[in-house]
Fold this sequence. Notes:
By secondary structure, the protein is mainly alpha-helical. Helices cover 71% and strands 2% of the residues. It starts with 5 loop residues before the first helix and ends with a helix.
Amino acid sequence: xxxxxxxxxxxxRVGHQVFLKIAxxxxxxxxxxxxxxxxxxxxxxxxxxxRVHADVTTFVGGLxxxxxxxxxxxxxxxxxxxxxxxxxxxxxxxxxxxxxAFTTFGAESDxxxxxxxxxxxxxxxxxxxxxxxxxxAGDPHLLTWVHIAEADSFLAAHQRYGERPLTPEQAxxxxxxxxxxxxxxxxxxxxxxxxxxxxxxxAYRPELHATAAALDTARFLLREPPLPRVARPPYALxxxxxxxxxxxxxxxxxxxxxxxxxxxxxxxGALATHGIRWLMGSADRRASTVDDQSSARDLDETSSx
Length: 305
């Protein structure tokens, strides 16, 4: 009789709990659909977008993206007026992670369905910001801002904390690939290289500042996370790593300079990602599993013709 290593058993159990916290209660079913549904995919096995989105550094990058995105007053007004971070933070995280999974790894038919669901949701998110300006979540200019903040954050986290950082050429390819999804959502003038991504962020800079809602969001995400006490110390490490990756001007706008000096910054981010990676497996292992499944599925489809 084979006796299972208790450490491995604990690692598997806790890792699965972390997965369900991020992917939501239907995460297992969604994962099966993503990887087992036959049909062509938008991105081939081994592509930069698959490498980046398979890595646990997306946890750090996702938090950085939320903080950075909040600095556009109209984008923040849409979130605050129609969902907010306090109302359903884990549901919001699950929807975002599910969207990334289907558009990065899923069958084209499912990826298109997810894009249409998001576009339909955006149709309902309209209103007036506290400064009197009207906002519309389907506005191509706002969609582009949300995209570049996300792409820059995922890439920054992967290059700083990832197991195998991308080469400059691969980083350009990641920007181009993530831009394909953004264009399908309605974004315009989408960057296709890291240089264009940097230029796009600079171009939005005059529009960005911290509103009361943005400051409340930062306080909630960093100081009042909806987690049990036992989970807050490791989350604080992850949050420190995310804040350390923000541009200096963004940390200043969100009043995070003093908070940053009291944390371990990049070292904390590295510890957090190492810990999560130990629980959930390396990016290479998880990406290769996905790619192996894709290759097997493609072989089955070819054989059946």
